[in-house]
Automatic annotation (TrEMBL):
Source taxon at top rank: Bacteria
GO CC annotations, alphabetized: bacterial nucleoid
Name by which UniProt lists this protein: DNA repair protein RecN
Assigned protein family: Belongs to the RecN family.
Molecular function GO terms recorded: ATP binding
Keyword check for Metal-binding: no
Originating organism: Actinacidiphila cocklensis
Keyword Nucleus: no
Length: 583
């Protein structure tokens, strides 16, 4: 099932194309036309949309810039859609709009979903959108990392399960190693931190401060320092309220209030309001008596001992020292001591933690080595099956002597800390195992097997990649494939086989092919014709969808160079019938 579809590309002022729209569809689309008509500009345009290098020489002579716009339909939860939305792009009715502008001076701009984005972002999205296989532009499966991922998907659930177990152990080992490194490399810093905390905690503990003690001592010091003034004030206040025995003629406040109450009580029966005032005076008299009694007791109990004041000031100095170093007040000092004690216990337990982590790391490394070897074994078995299948495909694509193999190897390391033991060797490992996977091609008997990007000519490479993609069909998640000149150097039966395999690949993905072979074009679900106008340019009307009679005429031209040849027409009709019956 195709998860995204390149629906349309509009090309303006690019090479021979003045202004043209290429309408594509799901399935297999063939792009045909005379040599030099501009078919390859389809590949070039798509390359620009995918973040390819902007060459100002591509800009049409006389134009200020070349513009390529693409519309790709995709689900909102597709990986490319999510990445684009993270960059601020928006989907337009279920489609992602991409634009690339190249000026004649060499400047390049990219837009994604209505937002200006770095060109590099288009390259990131390319991996999840389109695989390009052309004469000079190869992407996707030529990269070893992609080859390993594709091989894992080809291998199926067995490798997926083993990879999941390996990944879990790898992540745990990474976390353990990170924590262990931190503990060991920062041992001196942590020892210094522990010494400082230990000194502080012991200093606070030796002082034995109590919550709120500093505030209480401050109030007591204030009271002791002004004891004489406080006692004198209390005595005078008591005399004013209760009278002074040494002054029999003095008038105290209590006597005055009592006299006022008696005067009102005599007439209170005649007016309720006055009776209420008399009652209030009675309350005042009682309150004055209570205050006078407390004043007498305060003066008697007031401690003016200078020795006690000295002891208080000494204790306050101790607490002030703690506050300056560890907190804003004694309560904050006690809180710091509690937190520091917990941190100190943690630091002092580092040796035990280091021993635990070291043991766990060694166990995980041993486990990872076993899981890595199992993963290698499974990949090797799948690689053999895959290589045999691709080699068989190449035999049908006019490369009968070519042989594809899959090299699975590991990079050894002398650093035991950075490697794991697999098969008695210390190898570099990563999140997907220790294996490096690379597809190799020996195109002829006796020729050495070389990486597929170096072991074949341009035309052969496209056919090799077609064979690889057909075998990987359904395993590789790229939804669109573009092949340029995949049929170079082949004809006859081999060309028919190329067309049949492209149609097979189109069952699970969108396939766009630039071709000059009618045997290939006949298998397409849709055929586009690129034509130049009399002035040598391709305009909007120069890219048309061929159907019925028009398609037969184009296939006839491709077969015999003559659209109206009866023999060519018959052959074209036969090709279409064969394609429909066998694809």
């Amino acid at each position: 099932m195709v998860v995204s579809v390149l629906e349309e590309m509009r090309i303006r002022s690019l090479g021979v194309i003045e202004d043209a729209v290429v309408e594509l569809s799901p399935g297999f689309t063939a792009v045909t036309g005379e040599t030099g008509a501009g078919k390859t500009m389809v590949v070039t345009s798509l390359g620009l949309l995918l973040g390819g290098r902007a060459d100002p020489a591509l800009v049409r002579i006389g134009a200020g810039s070349a513009v390529v716009e693409g519309r790709i339909a995709m689900a909102a939860d597709a990986r490319a859609a999510i990445r684009a939305q993270e960059a601020g792009a928006e989907l337009d009715d279920g489609a992602l709009l991409i634009s690339r502008t190249v000026s004649a001076e060499g400047r390049s701009r990219a837009h994604l979903g209505g937002r200006t984005v770095p060109v590099g972002l288009l390259g990131e999205l390319a991996d999840d959108l389109v695989a390009v296989h052309g004469q000079t532009d190869q992407q996707g499966l030529l990269r070893p990392a992609r080859q390993r991922d594709a091989l894992d998907r080809y291998a199926g659930p067995t490798v997926a399960g083993a990879l999941e177990k390996y990944g879990a152990a790898y992540r745990r080992l990474r976390d353990v190693a990170t924590e262990l490194t931190e503990l060991t490399t920062r041992a001196r810093e942590r020892a210094q931190e522990a010494d400082l905390l230990r000194f502080g905690v012991e200093e606070v503990s030796a002082a034995e401060p109590l919550p709120g003690e500093d505030a209480e001592l401050s109030a007591e010091a204030e009271r002791l320092g002004h004891a004489e003034a406080l006692a004198s004030a209390a005595t005078l206040a008591h005399a004013a309220l209760a009278g002074n025995p040494e002054d029999p003629e003095g008038v105290e406040a209590g006597t005055l209030v009592a006299g006022a109450q008696r005067a009102l009580d005599a007439v209170a029966a005649y007016d309720p309001d006055l009776a209420a005032l008399a009652a209030r005076l009675g309350e005042i008299g009682i309150l004055l008596g209570d205050v006078a009694g407390e004043l007498a007791g305060y003066a008697d109990n007031l401690d003016a001992d200078p020795l006690r004041l000295a002891a208080v000031e000494e204790r306050r100095a101790v607490l002030a020292h703690l506050v300056r170093k560890y907190g804003t007040d004694i309560d904050a000092v006690l809180a710091w001591a509690g937190q520091s004690g917990a941190r100190l216990a943690e630091l002092e337990g580092d040796d035990d933690r280091i021993a635990e982590l070291t043991a766990e790391r060694d166990a995980l490394r041993a486990e990872l080595g076993g899981l890595g070897q199992h993963l290698t074994d499974l990949r090797t078995e799948a690689a053999d099956r895959f290589a045999a299948a691709v080699t068989a495909e190449l035999a049908e694509l006019a490369m009968p002597h070519a042989r594809v193999t899959v090299a699975i190897r590991q990079t050894e390391t002398a650093d035991a800390e950075s490697g794991i033991e697999i098969g008695g060797r210390a190898v570099v490992y990563g999140p997907a195992g220790a294996d490096e996977v690379e597809l190799l091609l020996a195109p002829h008997p006796g020729s050495p097997a070389r990486p597929i990007a170096k072991g074949a000519s341009g035309g052969e490479l496209s056919r090799v990649m077609l064979a690889v993609e057909v075998v990987f069909a359904g395993s590789d998640p790229v939804p669109t494939y573009l092949f340029d000149e995949v049929d170079a150097g082949v004809g006859g039966k081999a060309a028919v086989e190329v067309g049949r395999r492209l149609a097979r690949l189109a069952r699970t993905a969108q396939v766009v092919v630039v071709t000059h072979l009618p045997q290939v074009a006949a298998f397409a679900d849709r055929q586009l014709l690129v034509e130049k106008t009399n002035d040598g340019s391709v305009t909007r009307s120069g890219v048309t969808v061929l159907e019925g009679e028009a398609r037969i005429r184009e296939l006839s031209r491709m077969l015999a160079g003559q659209e109206d040849s009866s023999l060519a027409r018959a052959h074209a009709e036969e090709l279409l019938a064969t394609a429909r019956s066998t694809s």
